[in-house]
């Protein structure tokens, strides 16, 4: 009797065996900015864990350092390790990744994984805001209005919010409210100065 070595795979099983392509830097940054990066790793069935770790640890690519840090911090496809997670997020922030700066600022502002520290939150959020991160600018406005931060920074923040572009109506309204509240804390001359266009 002759047995055939041909095994027919179901379409569903064949799909599970498909190789997952590694994310490009631009694609990963877009996912991070949309906060869909961890979901994508899970959707890809955790196939890229070793590649992600290598790009974070050996190649030191900021977007991959952030992704790896987030995976470690929350135990996504790996054992949970918040200490190492925060370490890699800080590595990405030190290389100027706005999303990492914003997340660390948010974590320090709210006491997530780290001790609450509003002053440190302001430092991280100010750096992210200067890089154009709108979420960081909103959080920084909230901290300034609540009495944290330096009045010397109000003009810069007002300037960034004044030039912010968003298609989200609720975000647009929030920006307008925070700008009005900042105006109460600023000298009229500083407000006039802040209403200048962004430099190209």
Question: Can you walk through the features of this model?
Answer:
It is a single chain. The chain is mainly α. Helix 10 runs antiparallel to helix 11. The N terminus is likely disordered.
Keywords:
200 residues; mainly alpha; 12 helices; disordered N terminus
Largest sheet, in brief, is: none
User: What proportion of the residues form beta strands (DSSP E)?
Assistant: under 5%
* Class based on secondary structure composition and strand pairing: mainly alpha
Total helix count? 12
Number of E-state strands: 0
Report the mean per-residue pLDDT as an integer: 91
Described by the principal axes of the CA atoms, the overall outline is elongated
CA-CA gap between termini: 78 Å
The helix content, as a percent range, equals: 55-70%
Radius of gyration: 22 Å
Low-confidence stretches: 1-15
Return the string of H and E elements: HHHHHHHHHHHH
- In terms of quaternary structure, the protein is single chain
Layout of helices and strands:
Blueprint lengths: L10 H6 L8 H9 L3 H7 L5 H9 L4 H13 L7 H13 L3 H13 L7 H13 L3 H12 L8 H9 L6 H17 L2 H7 L6
Helix pairs in contact: 4-5, 5-6, 6-7, 7-8, 7-9, 8-9, 9-10, 9-11, 10-11, 10-12
Quick summary of this structure?
By secondary structure, the protein is an all-alpha fold. It has helices at residues 11-16, 25-33, 37-43, 49-57, 62-74, 82-94, 98-110, 118-130, 134-145, 154-162, 169-185, 188-194.
